[in-house]
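U., I forgot to send this yesterday:
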Amino acid sequence: MALPSLNATPSYELTVPSTGKKYKFRPFLVKEQKVLMLAYESQDKKQIINAMLSTIASCVEDIDIKTLTTSDVDYIFVQLRAKSVGEKIELSIPCDNCQTKNPLTVDAEKVNVSSTSREKIVELNKEISVKLKYPTYFDFMTNTDSENKSQTETIMDVIISCIDSIMTAEENISAKDESREEVLKFVESMNSKQFEEISDFVQNIPQVEYKADFVCVNCGYEKEIRLQGLDDFF
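Result:
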């Protein structure tokens, strides 16, 4: 005998920040929550990302997780978490003045993304331009071959992930059709000014963010706080 369905699953709608496209989604269930909890307990970055992507693929209708930028994924996950666990996220924020930990309640519905642009073309010289895009988590996992990297190596990984194509007067070369080593060699051939223009784009990769007024319960210190990136919310 088949067991009865336990709960009617409600449906909600969200808008992907970078594209403006609307998608229907359901809250995640215990089976997805279990995968997420195991991933967070592992403290393994790739396992956590895979669990998030898997949950989004299961809960959001007709969405292609491979095309979502990192900020899209983070935003969608916050919205999923809000409808699944609760729209209020309880955090503890240390005071900059006295280090007392203060409670902060974040309204998930007021979390947004710092920018919704997706790409930029940088002219390196009169013959060569680079089309840059904000990366996906799949880009990061493809271009990062080790967890134990220096900060410089990590920055290079991010830059490689952001290169969509190299354009000349004769052709448009897709970076995904070239090996990581070839793209790295291209980046390393840039002069300081060219590299700085690429780096400026990378340093402004959109993130989920939330702003709030902060008043310390112990010393009365006041400031505006800005939470940025998914790690700040969970």
